Amino acid sequence: MNWKSVIKVVSCLTGLFLLGSVCGFAMSGRVAAARGSVPVGGGSKWVERWLDRRMAEDFAVIQATPEQQQQQLRPAYEHLRADFSAIRQEAAQKVAEAIKRHRQEMWAQLTPEQREALRQSFQERRLRFWESRRETPSP
Prior knowledge:
Low-confidence stretches: 37-41
Mean pLDDT: 84
Shape: flat
Order of helices and strands: HHHH
Radius of gyration: 23 Å
Distance between the termini: 56 Å
């Protein structure tokens, strides 16, 4: 085999590995949501837990004094928490707008029978969503 072939094979395998990693990560979130370990709709509790754990680890690594933690460092983490919340709200709004735009574009192309079928499908989805919210145990 020449070098070009080796590079092609290595590149293809690396790409396949990365694609598999991304798909595995995405599927793990879906599986976790189905099991109820991640709240439906994403939720923000994992952010709170992650941020609290990250803050504690960072304080331990730098050996921050309690005074330094409270007065100097904790406000930076609270600012990060607020940033995460704003990003989450902005993303949720953009997703809702995109879905609304998609439905309007699609609705204009449908026959009355197709519209009725889609309307029923939406109602069934809403029912399933709310039923799953009731069945999901809260952590």
